[in-house]
Structures are given as structure tokens and as C-alpha cells.
Amino acid sequence: MSAEEREFLRSHYTDSPNAYQALSPRASTSNSSGLHPGLGHRKSTDSSISDNPLNQRKWGYKALALICTLLISVGAHYSAHTLGSLKATIKEELGITNAQYGALQSTVSMVNTFLPLLGGIFIDTFGTATGSILATIFITIGNTIISISTHQRSFHTMVVGKILYGLGSGAIVTIQETILGHWFKGRSLSIALALQISSSRVASFLSMGTAVPIAHYFNFYGAAFWASTFVCAFSMAVNLLYVWLMRHIKEQMTTQELAKLKRKTSFSIRLMLFLPAAFWLIASESFILGSAWTSFLHINTELIKLRFGTDDRVAAWNASISQIMPIFLVPCLGYILDRFGHRPSWIIFAGLTFTLSILFVGFTHITPVVGMVIYSISLSIGPVALITSIPLIIPLSSLGTALGLYKSASNTGDTIVDILVGRLQDIGPKTLKESSNSYFYVMIFYIFWGCFSMGVGALLLVVDRNSWMGLLTSQSPERKQIQRELTEYRREQDPRRLINLPNWKQYLRWWNWTPLVVLGFLLIVSWVLFVKFLV
After folding, report:
1. pLDDT digits (tens, 9 = 90+) for 447-492
2. Is residue 497 included in any domain, yes or no?
3. How would you classify residue 469: left for phi > 0, otherwise alpha for psi between -120 and 50, otherwise beta?
4. Cα 498 versus chain centre, distance
5. Which of 120, 202, 167, 201 has the alpha carbon at shortest distance from 384?
6. The whole model's pTM is what?
7. Which helix (H) or strand (E) holds 23?
8. Neighbours of 83 (CB within 10 A)
9. Is 440 a domain residue?
10. Is residue 495 part of a domain?
11. Interatomic CA distance for residues 459 and 392, integer angstroms
């Protein structure tokens, strides 16, 4: 990100009060006063850089904070894919159907259909230290219970463990991203977020590749879950180290710096009504592409085993290739997207590569490695393009809440699609259920889902050009001028001012409510499906 983006992230503005009307600054009266929206009489665009004392710390502290922040979610990501690598074994040991397995996998996402939003509001209001400690404790306890359930061969005990794990895992990534947003700014923030995604893929790759070998080595599938518990305990220890680091830094801060760090951000639920249309399209892509990526990772080991006739170990390692490309591509993509832009186009390309990967794995006899590599390209590009778009259009003061909504949409999609995929496999003709074609209906659904995501990406491209002056599409040099114009345009229409007005409702239209109503409906659907197939 450019120097102007630093101010963009720090500035306290959101979109026009009528969030779905034409937003083009060309139609507005430009602000020539030099005042910054939502921040009163601030004259210098550079002064806001010092708003957060953490991003002024020495790079030695930043490096240690970055390492700690990346490691606190390793346990959550490692544990997330242990279950998927052992799908066939778990179905046999617990005596469950594909739909019940889907419900088991969706337990985490079901819990997190609303928790990330609450966690985002909590972060915006109270900070990250308390939340991160609670999150890692829940993750570790949940995985311990899951490990115990393998000895009892109890489906419902495993569900309880997954629920506790989900309580922590849903919050930890939002906390992690918010911490990075406080420590870093500009281009370093893009790189830090890219490293966060990359590190999560390393943990996922190791989990998918080692779960089956660990289970075979100890001749007990539960050993893989105990290994996950150990990794979660390690992440909790690292989190305690980060909390100690923060206390040490606070001791070195001036009274003024501490006041800035502890400053609370007031939250109003009304603010969600004024989030821009571009954000809701990004959240929609999180629902569609996010659920496609996640559910596919939950079934790709068994898919390869049945489709290509391999054993568990070969299938698990082939499936783990889906996590390879993000490890290497994501850090580079952070810079590429910052320098050259075109985020909506990259999102469309992510949908295209996902669809192509399904065609290769589901309908050809070419080695599954090809399909997994193409899938991993989608998994590399999509999350980076989506997550780095949000800070461009959402102010830092509301970033935690926006990330919470983004992840709530993603987890709602995960819950619905996980169960749907299992159900599609179960309702197929008997000749398909245990054959190499048992995932035929699932593959058809994935192709439709991938094409749908490309359509939403194209709509985001149109909205960006017509309403945001091409901010998400623009390259770094051009982006500076666009941000200046957008900042000036919103000075008189800051929602943080408007939501406190007695007549704030006059700025609303029916379409301001639509995204929240749709998300609420889908959330209810996800819970109904979960309860139906869990009982």
C-alpha cells in the first residue's frame, strides 16, 4: 500500500449514508478545506500515522510481534484439517453418514456464523489481549475433548469438542488480523496479511500430509488428534509470550501513547447499515468462494481415494498439494496486488481456477496432482484479493466489525455447503455411493458454484468502476489521487456523525437493510440444517 493508504486506513470515514446510491465523487462537491472526515480539524494527512503507537515501535519489536501473531493461529489451522484427512476412517469408526460427517465438519463454521461478528465488535471496543487468550484456551480444550472422543468412539463427544474448538478458532483469525492492522501500516500491512495467510497454509499442509502417517504409525487414528492438541498448546504458549511482550512495551510508552492505545471505539449496530455495496459483494464472495474452498478441503482426500483408486496415504499427500501454492505465492501476491491492483479481476480469476480444478479432478483421468495445483492457485489468489480489499473501503475504526461480518458470511456458507455436499453424496444412486463416481453430483454443484462466484466478481468490478472510481482496480500511483478524492468526498457524509443524529433513519432506504436480512436468513438456514443432520 502507498503512503496515502496509511491515511486511508487511519481515517474515520465510511460510505455515503445512502450506501447503495451512486457514490461517485464526480457527482459531489469536492472538499478543499483539507479537513479529514470524521476526525475534526486535522490538517495534515501525515499526522494520523502516529495515531497508533504500536506502528511506531522499533522493527525488532515488530518482528517479534509478527512471529508471535503468525504462530498463535497455527494450532487452529493445523487442527482444522486433521478431520478431513481421516474422513473414511472416522465414518467407519463412528458409524456415521456423509451428511453427518458434513454436519460434524460444519460444527466449527456453524458456531462461527455469529461469533466472528461479536468478536469483531469486541475487538473494536476492548482490544485483543483478553480475546486472544480466551480463544487459544478454547481451541486447546476443544481439541483435547476431540482426542478423548476417539477413545470413546463417540460422535456426540467429538461434536462437543468441535464446538469448543470453534468458539476459539472463529475469533483467533479476526484477532490476528486486527493485531497486524495495529502493528503495521502501508505496504508492510499487505505483506503481513499475506504472511498470515501463507503461515496458515503451511499448518494446513502439514496437517493434511501428516495425519494419516501419524495414525498409521501409532496404529490408532486418535493419535493424529492428540498431535493436533499438542500444536494447539504450543500456540497458546506463544500467545502468552505476546501478551508479555505487550506489557513490556506498555511500560516503555508515554502517558499520551498509552491513552491512544487504550482509546475505545464506540460501536453502533446502525453502522452496519451504512457499509458500502462493494463490501457486501466482497462478503458475498466470501460466502461463495470461501465455502467452496473449505468444503473441498474437507472431502478432497476421500475424493482422490475413490476417484483414482489410491490408498489413504497417497490420497492424503495428493490432497495436501492443494495447500502448497499459497505458501509460496501469497507473500508475492500481497505486493503484486498492492502495486498493480485489479483486485476484482483477480477474484474472478480465483473463481475460474477453482472451476477448472473441479473439471480436472472430477471429470478427467489426469493425475489428481494437476487439479490440486490449479485449486491451490485459486486458494492463493482469492483470499488475498478479498481480504486486502476490505481495508481499502472500510475505516480502521470499523475494521474489526467488518472483518467479523466477512467471516460470519464465510462461516454461514461453510455450514450450508459442508452439509449440502455430504447430502449430495448420500442421495446419489446406490451404484454411485461407494464407487469412483460417488462425488459426481458434488462436482456438478461445485462447477455451478464456481461460475456463480465469477458472476459476483464481475458485479464487483462494475461497482468498483462506477461507485469507487476504480479504487480496487487502480494501480499504486493512480490509487493515491483516487483516495484523495474519495476522502474529500466523504467529509460531510461521515456515518459516524450521521448515525448519532436524531433523524438518522431518513438516510436509509430498503436496500440498506437487504444484505443484513439476507445474511440473517442464511444464518437461520445454516442452523436448521445443522440441527437436522446432527440429531
Report:
1. 999 999 999 999 999 999 988 888 888 887 787 777 777 776 555 5
2. yes
3. left
4. 29
5. 201
6. 0.76
7. none
8. 23
9. yes
10. yes
11. 18
> How far is the C-alpha of 10 from the C-alpha of 204, rounded, in Å?
33
Q: Report the number of distinct structural domains present in the chain.
A: 1
The residue assigned the cell 461479536 is 118
Which CATH number does the domain housing residue 196 bear?
1.20.1250.20
CA–CA distance from 325 to each of 174, 197, 332 (Å)?
23, 11, 11
User: What is the spatial distance between Cα 513 and Cα 251, in angstroms, rounded to a whole number?
Assistant: 45
Mark out the alpha helices in 253-398 (DSSP H runs): 255-262, 277-308, 312-320, 324-340, 343-363, 368-387, 390-393
Residue 468 in domain: yes
C-alpha radius of gyration, the chain, whole number: 23
In angstroms, rounded to a whole number, what is the distance separating the alpha carbons of residues 476 and 187?
Answer: 10
Output the nine-digit C-alpha cell for 72: 498463535
Tens digits of residue pLDDT in 167-205: 888 778 777 877 787 777 656 776 787 788 788 888 988
φ, ψ of residue 519 to 5 degrees: the values are -60, -40
For residues 465 and 450, what is the distance between their CA atoms, to the nearest angstrom? 23
Looking at residue 323, what DSSP letter applies? G
Q: By residue range, what is the domain housing residue 426?
A: 54-534
